[in-house]
Write a structure and sequence with these properties.
mainly alpha; DNA polymerase, domain 1; hpI Integrase, Chain A; disordered N terminus; Integrase-like_cat_sf; Integrase family protein; Tyrosine_recombinase_XerCD; DNA recombination; chromosome partition
Length: about 400
């Protein structure tokens, strides 16, 4: 086998590693007589570890990505086998993840995601976020632990790294990014409406995604809600305000601001179903109207299936646009109604809505609705929510704006 050094990074499928770097003589190698693997080099050992996740494509791809990055960095950047890496080496790797350099070697052109057989493919699409950096180290720590248990290496150098963020408060991860949310809206906006059934489905998809997103509701709250739960009153400035009364978890009631945008979508949905534009307080029409049969509230599971259908069809629509959309489609396949609740809260907070307002809109804390101070707070909450938290149906999806970039 040639001893020529590797000149550029390549996907693991086509990677050639010279003998002096393939790990057969790695300084951290365990006793070959005690190894439970038939692998004799680092690449085969990594493949043996990955084989445990072959039945879950998303997990396999994620784990392969992180192992591949470390293996390539060790061989190309340090000129060392994976099985010779030390604690000090991994401290350098942690810094490298923050901003992989040199850029032309490690980061794909224009930060795009290309097929692994494409010459423009690189291990990174750009610098990793802090959360992605932590996730990479967690995955690699698990890989080294497995290799130690298998007897392939003697010790786990990852275990010596101080995980500075491991005691941080939990963070919501099940939500849609702005760009992925734009793709969902793009899918809904292009739904065909040539037949009556198509029109009904398109109207439901638009209303359902609007309601979940703008109001941050739980599945059970949408399933049990009636259109008569919408009400209007005059604010302190004399202007009309719309609100939605919600009976939430633990039988706790809350009222959530209903923006003019939401009321316009409500009128649009009601018109599509042959109803007057606006409901009265006695209107017992369910928030989500069944396609057929009596107009009574649907079950929680039926509402869950309805929003899952939107995400699933949007994922298929993305996949049809090319392999570079696969990761984003996979993310949508995992999404559920509760993801939209998290998405609503996250986007409100990110757009500058006060966290107390987000808290009250999502119903995390009960409100005393009788005090004068709270009345003033409600006026402020209504103005802030309506102003900043919008559906923006007319905004083109990220792909059309030329800015749809996948996360690393």
């Amino acid at each position: 086998m040639s001893n020529t050094p590797i000149a550029s990074v390549q996907p693991a499928e086509t990677l050639f590693i010279p003998e002096r770097l393939d790990g057969r003589d790695g300084t951290n190698r365990g006793d070959p007589g005690n190894s439970q693997l038939s692998a004799r080099n680092d690449l085969d050992a990594v493949r043996a570890w990955l084989s445990n996740y072959a039945d879950t494509q998303t997990t396999f791809d994620s784990y392969r990505k992180e192992a591949e990055r470390l293996l390539l960095w060790a061989v190309v950047q340090l000129g060392k086998p994976l099985s010779s890496l030390t604690h000090e080496d991994l401290l350098l790797f942690r810094v490298f993840l923050v901003n992989p350099q040199p850029e032309n070697r490690w980061i794909s052109a224009n930060g795009g995601k290309y097929p692994r057989v494409d010459a423009r493919w690189r291990p990174f699409n750009g610098p990793l976020s802090p959360a992605s950096q932590r996730q990479a180290l967690i995955i690699l720590n698990g890989m080294f632990t497995w290799l130690v248990d298998a007897g392939y290496v003697r010790g786990n150098p990852m275990a010596l790294l101080r995980q500075r963020g491991k005691h941080a408060a939990p963070r919501v991860t099940r939500y849609l990014s702005i760009s992925l949310w734009d793709e969902v809206k793009g899918f809904v906006g292009q739904l065909p409406q040539a037949t009556g059934l198509q029109k009904a489905y398109a109207a439901r998809c638009r209303w359902l995604t609007t309601l979940f997103y703008l109001q941050g509701m739980r599945v059970s709250e949408v399933a049990a809600g009636k259109m008569g739960d919408f009400s209007r009153r005059l604010g302190a400035d004399g202007r009309e305000q719309w609100w939605l009364d919600i009976l939430g978890k633990g039988e706790k009631e809350r009222i959530v601001p209903a923006s003019p945008e939401l009321i316009a979508e409500l009128a649009r949905y009601r018109k599509a179903n042959g109803l007057p534009s606006l409901p009265g307080r006695a209107d017992d029409t369910p928030l989500l109207i069944p396609f057929r049969g009596k107009r009574r509230c649907m079950s929680r599971s039926a509402v869950h299936d309805a929003i899952k259908s939107v995400f699933g069809n949007a994922a298929a629509w993305l996949r049809a646009r090319g392999p570079e959309f696969t990761d984003r489609a996979d993310e949508l396949d995992r999404a559920s109604a509760h993801w939209l609740r998290h998405t609503s809260g996250s986007h409100q907070a990110d757009s500058g809505v006060d966290l107390r307002t987000v808290r009250d809109n999502l119903g995390h804390v009960s409100l005393n609705t009788t005090s004068l101070y709270l009345h003033e707070e409600e006026d402020k909450r209504h103005r802030e929510t309506v102003k900043r938290h919008r559906m923006n149906w007319e905004t083109p999806p990220a792909a059309e704006r030329g800015s749809a970039k996948n996360d690393s």
